[in-house]
Amino acid sequence: MATILSVSGSPSATSRTERLLRHLDHRLTAQGHKVTALDVRTLPADALLGADFRDPAIVEATALFERAEGVVIGTPVYKAAYSGLLKSLLDLLPQHALDGKIVLPLATGGTTAHVLAIDYALRPVLSSMGAVHILPGWFTLDKDITVDDDGTLSVAPDAAEGLVQVTDRFSAALGGRTTLLAAAG
Ligand SMILES: Cc1cc2nc3c(=O)[nH]c(=O)nc-3n(C[C@H](O)[C@H](O)[C@H](O)COP(=O)(O)O)c2cc1C
């Protein structure tokens, strides 16, 4: 069992990225991990924009990174890269905040033209922060994620299969149980 921090970098109050991550959190929990969710949008904007390293919420977020063995980083694609909100938090963390950690990068976006944003934009940043192992990530099209009125999330079958694969690979890298669970859709 590993300690996992699951970070959503979307500023949206109705974020598909965030919903998707929370859905995957359940899968990781079922595989024996202790998962903590962190939605960057809930952190104080003045601390993020004013680079206030000493704000208690930023200190606590930094401690969550320190304690985690595995980190899921989820972001919407904005202007062909990751969100500015996510970057505002990463910029406040110590340079080697991901030292020795296993990282799973995930993105959602509106067009497959930016399916490689994880690799050309996010991965180098995570690498510069010391991540020991950045697993292959997964890009999910926003139209493939549906949230019903009751909050139930569904993912189109092909996307769901890819998400299950990368999530289970992440879990296995962290020593999670190799339980056979239903697809993430
Ligand atoms: C300001 C803005 C910029 C965006 N830029 C892109 C982009 O460059 N490429 C892309 O594929 N999608 C882009 N999108 C679409 C979002 O990435 C997509 O809808 C994503 O799933 C939103 O995630 P969220 O609901 O978690 O915020 C953009 C959306 C917004 C609001």
Architecture overview:
- The protein is an alpha/beta fold and 185 residues long.
- It has one domain: 3-Layer(aba) Sandwich (Rossmann fold), CATH 3.40.50.360.
- The protein has helices at 16-30, 45-49, 56-67, 84-90, 117-128, 157-173, and strands at residues 3-8, 34-39, 70-76, 102-109, 133-134, 138-141, 145-147, 153-155.
- Strands 1, 2, 3, 4, 5 and 6 form a 6-stranded parallel sheet that branches.
- The protein is globular.
- Residues 10, 12, 15-18, 76-80, 108-111, 114, 142 line the site of flavin mononucleotide (FMN).
| Radius of gyration, whole Å | 15 Å
Beta-strand residue fraction = 15-25%
CATH topology: Rossmann fold
Task: Say which molecules are bound, naming each kind only once.
Answer: flavin mononucleotide
Number of extended strands: 8
CATH class: Alpha Beta
Distance between the termini: 24 Å
**Judging by the overall fold, what is the CATH architecture?**
3-Layer(aba) Sandwich
Main β-sheet description: 6 strands, parallel
**What proportion of the residues is helical, as a percent range?**
25-40%
| Structure annotation, total helices | 6
CATH superfamily: Flavodoxin domain
Shape: globular
Total separate domains: 1
**Class computed from helices, strands and strand pairing:** alpha/beta
Residue stretches low in confidence (pLDDT < 50, at least 5 long) are none
**Overall mean pLDDT score?**
94
Order of helices and strands: EHEHHEHEHEEEEH
